Amino acid sequence: MFVSALFKLGLLALPAVAGVVKRAGVAYYDPAHGGGSMLDNAGDGLGEPLNVIISGESSSEVLNEAGIINFAQAIGFSTECLGIHLGGPQSANLGDGNGWVNQTIEMREDYGSTGVGTCLESLIGGNHFRVFVQNGTSADSGALFLAVSKEEDVEEGHTIVPNGYDIGRDQFVTAALGTTSNNGVTYTTTAQNITGLMPAGSAGVNHNISIDGIVTLLTVTAS
Q1: Residues 147, 41, 192, CA angle at the centre, nearest 5°?
Q2: Consecutive 10-residue averages of pLDDT for the chain (223 residues)
Q3: Which of the 8 DSSP states describes residue 74?
Q4: Domain annotation covers residue 14
Q5: Would you say residue 5 lies in a domain?
Q6: Would strands 77-79 and 144-151 be described as parallel, antiparallel, or unpaired?
Q7: What is the pLDDT of residue 140?
Q8: For residues 92 and 132, what is the distance between their CA atoms, to the nearest angstrom?
Q9: Of all helices (H) and strands (E), which one includes residue 118?
Q10: Can you give the pTM of this predicted structure?
């Protein structure tokens, strides 16, 4: 329903099949074409959906660890509380020849404070995302694949809220769209929904949470 509302407001383009039209360069490569998956590896044979892609056609300043951190801080996320990560990292195979690679970084909702806000998220829950980079020699788009989800509080063991993958994606996209800024960098972000990259449903999805199968492609221009 939320995604449909964005369509009606003109904030998202109409759904397109996998294999988007490129302006120049490559937005992303479908991981399945290189033996990869749009589900990461969360353990026990289950995965979390890579439901947001930062296009490889975005500004180069965004497509690295420092760049995604600055962009994330512009839209209400920051690095983990006191730099401490609890739990093991997840991995993803983006079909680029690198095989299964651990997440580059994990970011959490900062509740208005890039310094300590993620400590609050660790306590009360909120949105968070993991970053994986498609940069192997067989599919080097430079795109960032994000596993975005909204999680419960620490007492619930940071499990994902009901419908938390789609909710997390939609909240992330809403925060990112339009013009944002941080540390002297201004970002202009547009979005397009992509269908066909991953199926709807709960098959293979962590916590048996059903997903709608939509991946949102963001193109971020920095100035």
Answers
A1: 30
A2: 40 39 72 97 95 97 95 88 63 98 90 56 73 96 96 60 94 97 97 96 95 98 96
A3: H
A4: no
A5: no
A6: unpaired
A7: 96
A8: 7
A9: helix 117-124
A10: 0.84
- Both tokens assigned to 24: 């120049």
Looking at the structure of the chain, the number of domains it has is: 1
Both tokens of 135, joined, read 């940069």
Domain for residue 82, yes or no?
Answer: yes
Query: Positive or negative CA dihedral for 116, 53, 198, 37?
Result: negative
Residues for the chain: how many in total? 223
Please give the residue range of the domain that contains residue 167: 25-222
CA dihedral 134, 17, 34, 62 (to 10 degrees): 0
Calpha distance 48→46 (Å, rounded): 7
Identify whether 148 is part of a domain: yes
Contact 95, 33 (CB under 8 A): yes
State the Cα–Cα distance between residues 176 and 92, nearest whole angstrom.
23
Tokens 């809403």 correspond to what residue? Answer: 174
Give φ, ψ of 173 to 5 degrees.
-65, -45
Distance (Å, rounded) from C-alpha 161 to C-alpha 145? 21
